[in-house]
Design goal:
By secondary structure, the chain is an alpha/beta fold. The chain is built from 17 helices and 12 strands. The protein has 3 domains: about 50 residues, no CATH class; about 130 residues, Rossmann fold (3-Layer(aba) Sandwich), CATH 3.40.50; about 170 residues, NAD(P)-binding Rossmann-like Domain (Rossmann fold). The relative contact order is 0.12. The structure holds NADPH dihydro-nicotinamide-adenine-dinucleotide phosphate (NDP) and (2Z)-2-iminopentanedioic acid.
Amino acid sequence: MKELTVTPLDLFMNDVVDKNPNEPEFHQAVREVSETVIPYIEENPKYKKANILQRIIEPERTIIFRVPWMDDQGNVHVNRGYRVQFSSTLGPYKGGLRFHPSVNLGVIKFLGFEQVFKNALTTLPLGGAKGGSNFDPKGRSENEIMRFCQSFMTALHLHISKHTDVPAGDIGVGPREIGYLFGQFKRIHNEFSGILTGKRPNWGGSFIRLESTGYGTVYFIQEMLAEVNDSFKGKNVVVSGSGNVAQFAMEKASVLGGKVIGFSDSTGHIHVPNGMSFDMIEEVKFLKNEKRGTISELAEKYSDTWYYEGERVWNIPDKVDIAIPCATENELDENDARKLIEKGVRCVGEGANMPTTTEAMHLFQSENILFAPGKAANAGGVATSGFEMAQNSARITWDHETVDKKLQTIMKNIHRQCVTYGNSQKSGHINYVRGANLAGFVKVADSMIEQGLV
Ligand code: NDP
Ligand code: 2IT
């Protein structure tokens, strides 16, 4: 009879699940990091002695608050607000705010946990955090959005400052929401300071912050391709989502010679067999950022452009060379991965946070497909937030070119760290998941030990 073996990873995860019930996304994120880190800890007893893994998965502080607000008809609503201040080891807590009906404690914890390692990889002095609310901005008027943001900040302002915790945007939180949140903090504190990033450049924001996550993801993929003497030129690219990250990933991939043949939103996907024009990319920005409509409208406007309601973009019939998931967690499962492999995919770069399920990730890895996890590939957004903080502290403004150059340097540096820690001497293949997890872990864990048992 085959003996059932319980691995150290199983034992550890049983404990994590017991202590954090009903938080499947958090379990998934912790398991993915622990898979890499536990064998490394076995080889490096100083981490075991300091009980680092158990400490690193426990947020330093979790804040949950009531957000009451009134709609345009005078009805009273109440939502739940969160801020999980995960780690201040490397700097002030830093990470975005998400407004989406799917937000709950487990989702915010998974995002905060990922942020700790991602921010470590940027090389900037940033701790990790995440926050948000289960508020659904869809269909809400400008005034309703403003009232919600003001109420949210009225509760959150007690817990943030430019030295303590600096939130930014994420799903459902863009420059419009950051503006209302910033205005309310300024009014309460009578203070104009960099307490949020993702501000508009006219009032303290950094150039390129809006573009940085999408651009950074494409710069990272460019580095992975260069490592195997390849490039975006002439490649078929599929991007999921059509929000902030997706828009600028499409743009930069096209600038570098890629042909973007598909993208999506929460209603379905669009297939553009001849590739998106720059005019169409601008139209997506207008549709999503100003008009706030659904992508089905684009198929009506452009010829040879097809809309498929309710279907994931990984279903498009053409050959796919590069896939860039930029919408949300677990949007690319094992079935989707199999389809992409059949279509010839060579490279997958996560613009979103944990968009690939664990099974799909393992499948890509087993097929030796270049796979970049979000904590490395999408770190350009928070890195540029770090630049925004630096500019705010110094009361200066760097121009577009300066910020873009710094962003490219950071993405190259993150890629190097992944190669250093993820290069397998045996196969010659680079495991970017292992590389990103270990490089981030070592930096945070060593710093925790140096700062004592706090
Ligand atoms: P946006 O709100 O600008 O866009 C989100 C996009 O994803 C939209 O196209 C939206 O469709 C789609 N989407 C969202 N939720 C779902 C869902 N449950 N099912 C299907 N589609 C969905 O967000 P961002 O572009 O800022 O964020 C996208 C991803 O990138 C997230 O994972 C985020 O955490 C990550 N990220 C963002 C950074 C940033 O700086 N903004 C930095 C690093 C990572 P629809 O328009 O129909 O709602
Ligand atoms: O997931 C992320 O890295 C973000 N949403 C950006 C965080 C930030 O502080 O800029």
